[in-house]
Predict the structure of Helix-turn-helix domain-containing protein.
Amino acid sequence: MEAITSFDQVPAALNYLINEVGILKKALAERDSSTSEPDKWFNLEEFCKYHPAKPAPTTVYGWVSRRAVPHKHDGKHLLFLKSEIDSWLKEKGRKTTAEIEALARQHPTRSRNQSSVTTA
């Protein structure tokens, strides 16, 4: 598309950009759907190998008993869904300073001198 030289050309340029964004969205959606792999279930051994820390099975049993890790039971076998484990691992990571500051801004602030209990 050529450069906009007058204000009258802005609507046509905007329409062009909207169409181009639509084409890009469709192309990305097709690429994502064709390359996405089906979700995988891990048994305990596979989970231990997949986890970055390579924990011992007894460590994982401790996490399961504390409900610290997403898991399912198949009879007496533990199963872990890869997508849930990936989300859990990302969630567990250290937050950046910007993320912590954003969380702090969400909480209401109260002066230390203010008391939540009023006296009569």
User: Anything to note?
Assistant: The chain has a mean pLDDT of 84. The beta strands are 41-42, 72-74, 77-81.
